[in-house]
């Protein structure tokens, strides 16, 4: 029986899958970080460029500061960044020198483990990204094999990729990433054996979502074939996220495996996220029933929650099933891209436009046009000729076909000035100026968070905003605090 290590995904992938990447602020992470550091996780799936963009856009928080503060609070646990190798925050393909600067600054600020995920399984591109990451000083580099179901993605396909990754000195280990939770126990036995044999001794990890209820069972089979299983804690597990850490540990030990984690601290982490979810009215992941439709559209958890949120904002949530049906059709017409970032976002956006519009492909996002133009590489299958002709016939397609090459950091310096930091430069180059300005104006992020205090704090904020309030008294046994207001300012407390 094996000793199994765990990687926790609560902060990044669990948050993205269940809370649309908008559920955790810097203070909320810092509050539990010291406990998570002592649980015994091999690493924390901590952030991605999309996750960093959300910090700026939604919370006006500096994602670089967030990394630094978390590294200080978690000195013993690797912090993981996951990236596609050719983009950072924005959808546009970045210059290699720009990506080298991204990797350099990630390491300086505290990232020491990076997943290399090329969505087209372009091994040459993955190997080049790994070289750049090693040059930046990344301690542990993981090559991603993204699992999907199609006629070409058989065990031999993944074994060939694993063999090429094993031959790269800059890739330290490999993980099978199952973003839609499609890996069955039966397929896991054959696939993981084939991949492990091809790795020539390099460690193997498994990351599988619970989207259709398979992964908790698949993990019990995979434990004989992998070194690491990726999990989530409390309300950030199950649903479209990953299996619950406490349940996985219990199941593995029942089967005779060893898992060296502190059970008390693991329970403390789960309890904290439960209290946070209750305080912020955030949903808890629940075990999922098997749904065959996922075998068709293969949409991962984070994109599912985002798509549902977009429909809700348009008052069209009842059309969610229609959008998912359209996703399968669009994916087929675009040559069956693997449903991993950025392709699920592209396919779902196109499906959404097709469903809510008056005509299919009347509105096509720029990134779908770039995909058809070949900017992301060659699809696994042919693009439907009629769809290709319609998209490439759009005036916008002609504009994008003539786009200039991505700017270098030196060129961006000329645009944004030499006085700002590299970190700010990377944000300004990929995000709207007003969002970065608002982040800077907000100052340092809060560093403390207590779930139980949130209702009281929201009440105080509400009362403080009232123009007719002259005095506020808060009382409890043994304590009375009175605040008197004048000209919207507290003058006595």
Alpha carbon gap, first and last residue: 63 Å
**Number of β-strand runs:** 11
Instruction: Please give the count of helices.
Output: 22
Low-confidence stretches: 489-493
Computed over alpha carbons, the radius of gyration is 24 Å
Strand content: 5-15%
Helix/strand-derived class? Answer: alpha/beta
Shape: globular
pLDDT averaged over residues = 91
Considering DSSP H and I runs of 4 or more, what fraction of the residues is helical?
40-55%
Output the strand order for the largest sheet: 1-2-3-4-5-6-7-8
Largest sheet: 8 strands, parallel, barrel
Please name the defining characteristics of this protein.
eight-stranded parallel β-barrel, 11 strands, alpha/beta, 493 residues, 22 helices
How is this structure best summarized?
By secondary structure, the chain is of the alpha/beta class.
Give a structural overview.
With 493 residues, the chain is α/β, with parallel strands linked by helices. The chain has helices spanning 10-19, 26-39, 49-59, 63-73, 96-109, 123-136, 155-166, 185-198, 215-222, 245-254, 263-279, 294-297, 301-313, 320-333, 343-356, 366-373, 385-392, 395-401, 409-416, 422-428, 433-442, 454-464, and strands at residues 5-8, 43-48, 78-83, 113-116, 140-146, 173-178, 204-208, 228-231, 471-476, 479-486, 489-492. The strands form 2 sheets. Strands 1-2-3-4-5-6-7-8 form an 8-stranded parallel beta barrel, surrounded by 6 helices. Strands 9-10-11 form a 3-stranded antiparallel beta sheet, with no helix packed on it. Strand 5, helix 7 (155-166) and strand 6 (173-178) form a beta-alpha-beta unit. The relative contact order is 0.13.
């Amino acid at each position: 029986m094996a000793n199994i290590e765990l990687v926790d995904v609560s902060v990044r992938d669990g948050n993205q899958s269940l809370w649309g990447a908008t559920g955790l602020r810097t203070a909320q992470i810092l509050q539990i970080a010291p406990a998570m550091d002592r649980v015994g996780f091999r690493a924390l799936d901590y952030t991605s460029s999309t996750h960093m963009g959300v910090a700026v856009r939604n919370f006006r928080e500096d994602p670089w500061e967030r990394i630094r503060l978390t590294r200080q609070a978690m000195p013993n646990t690797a912090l993981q960044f996951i990236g596609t190798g050719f983009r950072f925050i924005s959808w546009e393909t970045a210059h290699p020198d720009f990506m080298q600067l991204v990797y350099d600054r990630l390491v300086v600020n505290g990232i020491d483990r990076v997943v290399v995920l090329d969505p087209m399984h372009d091994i040459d591109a993955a190997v080049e990204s790994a070289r750049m990451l090693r040059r930046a000083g990344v301690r542990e580099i993981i090559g991603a094999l993204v699992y999907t179901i199609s006629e070409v993605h058989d065990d031999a396909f993944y074994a060939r990729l694993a063999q090429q990754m094993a031959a790269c000195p800059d890739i330290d280990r490999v993980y099978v990433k199952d973003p839609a939770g499609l890996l069955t126990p039966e397929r896991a036995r054959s696939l993981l054996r084939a991949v492990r044999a091809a790795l020539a001794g390099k460690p193997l990890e498994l990351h599988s979502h619970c989207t259709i209820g398979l992964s908790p069972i698949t993990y019990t089979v995979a434990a004989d074939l992998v070194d690491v299983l990726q999990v989530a804690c409390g309300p950030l597990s199950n649903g479209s996220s990953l299996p619950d850490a406490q349940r996985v540990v219990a199941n593995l030990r029942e089967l005779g495996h060893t898992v060296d984690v502190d059970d008390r601290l693991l329970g403390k982490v789960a309890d904290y996220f439960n209290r946070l979810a209750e305080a912020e009215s955030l949903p808890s992941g629940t075990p999922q029933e098997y749904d065959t439709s996922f075998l068709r559209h293969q949409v991962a958890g984070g994109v599912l929650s985002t798509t549902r949120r977009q429909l809700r904002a348009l008052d069209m949530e009842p059309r969610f099933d229609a959008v998912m049906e359209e996703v399968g059709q669009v994916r087929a017409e675009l040559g069956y891209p693997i449903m991993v970032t950025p392709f699920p976002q592209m396919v779902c956006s196109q499906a959404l436009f097709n469903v809510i519009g008056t005509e299919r492909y009347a509105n096509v996002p720029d990134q779908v046009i770039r995909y058809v133009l070949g900017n992301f590489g060659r699809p696994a299958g042919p693009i439907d000729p009629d769809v290709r002709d319609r998209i490439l016939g759009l005036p916008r397609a002609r504009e994008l076909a003539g786009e200039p090459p991505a700017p270098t950091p030196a060129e961006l310096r000329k645009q944004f000035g030499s006085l700002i930091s590299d970190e700010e430069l990377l944000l300004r180059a990929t995000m709207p100026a007003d969002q970065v300005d608002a982040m800077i104006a907000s100052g340092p992020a809060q560093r403390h968070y207590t779930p139980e205090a949130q209702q009281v704090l929201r009440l105080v904020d509400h009362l403080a905003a009232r123009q007719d309030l002259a005095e506020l008294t808060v009382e409890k046994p043994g304590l009375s605090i009175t605040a008197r207001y004048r000209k919207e300012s507290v003058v006595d407390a």
